[in-house]
Amino acid sequence: MLGRLLGAGESRAISYQTLFATGADFSSVTPSGKAINERTALKIGAVYAAVRLLSDTISTLPADTFRRVDGARVPFRPKPAWVDNPDSGTSREDHIAQVMVSLLIDGNAFVRVYRANSGTNTGLVSALVVLDPTKVEVNRNANGEVFYRFEDRFNLSADEIIHMTELKKPGELRGMSRIEQVKDTLGIAAALDEFSARFFGSGSTTSGILEMASTLTKEQAVQLKETFEATHRGVNRSHRVGVLGGGAKFVATQVEPEKAQMLESRRFAVEEVARAFRVPQHMLQVAGTGVQSYASNEQNAIQFAVYTLRPYVAKLESAYSRLLPGGAFLRFNMDGLLRGDLNSRYSAYSTGLQSGFMSINDVRRLEDFRSVEGGDSYRVPLANVNVEAANITEQGIRVDMLSKMVTLGFDPAEALQVVGLPSIEHTGLPSVQLQQPATLNPEDPEDAYPVRSAEPADFADAISSAIGSMQPPVVNVQMPEAPTRSRKIKRDEDGNITEILEA
Question: Which pLDDT belongs to residue 451?
Answer without folding.
Answer: 45
